[in-house]
Give the backbone structure.
Amino acid sequence: MRYGYTFDDVALVPQFNNIPSRTEPCLESWLTKSLKIGIPLLASNMDTVISYELADVLIAHGTIPIFHRFTTLQEQKKWVKKYEGKTFISSGIGKIEETFELLDLGAAGVCIDVAHGHSDKMFAYIEMLKKKHPDKEVIAGNVCTAMAYHDLVNAGADAVKVGIGPGAACSTRMVTGFGVPQFTAIQNCAEIAEKLRAPLIADGGIRSSRDVVLALAAGANSVMLGKLFAEVLESAAPKKETLEGWKAKYRGQASQDFQNDFYGGLKQKTVAEGVDFWVSVTGSAETLIQEILGGLRSGMTYGGAKNIKELQRKAEFMIVSSSYLQESLPRKT
Ligand code: XMP
């Protein structure tokens, strides 16, 4: 039987640093086979995360917003018109005509999201999209094995999203027993991603800049954040003021709460594989991005890396005991 590791099970070993202190590490990365982004961060294409205000901040940093699909076609068209050429849209593996329409309108690409992306329906969908729109970029997911990664790229995907069940609002693993620990999932998929030259997006389970550094060092080209971006002022999450300050409502796209709203009780969906909860609003998107990029830049210095490729090439991981985190957390006593 194989062993799998989460972010908390591993640590990076510092490497010799020969980079002049005034050199800024380069944070550019590849989102897809032919699309570069200025920073390796993405906001989840979820209805409580991505908003116009957040998209503006992401674009200002040179990365790409991916709109969610849990709204009317009208609303998605409005989005694409506003961000023509600068946005991705989302799709499931149905309603291909709507996806074509949005691509025709000027979306740069599409993110095909299926909870279990390794399926023949997914292959067929990617093939249909690439046939009609060879010039548009296709992100496909989610998967957590090298075999699945290979198969999606083989079907035509220009990037693959990795992560089954690590998300803050996910209960897939607890409901079904399936899901590979995220650090190992990224490492396993990264090997094939490198061979096929198809960028890897690590999706879910990121709690701080530490996880971002680990995910990138393990081979991800970019990292998708749901909860962290839901918590910012600009997110699409509903907000309310309480005695303890402002709160934002974050929910999984497979949660009961979302299903009730979206399907209005009309369609009996499958058992919920996500949850909803209120979180404290942490501040602006800009502050969050600066905090993460600050940690990443500093991490790259410890890794002796002037860019993400070098961080990956020099990465030396150590498996740590559960007391490692205890030792690592700041403490007064
Ligand atoms: P974080 O940890 O950043 O994760 O909040 C965001 C990612 O979680 C995924 N997602 C779900 N996974 N059930 C799941 O199993 C759900 O209801 C659900 N909703 C979102 C998604 O990949 C997102 O980017």
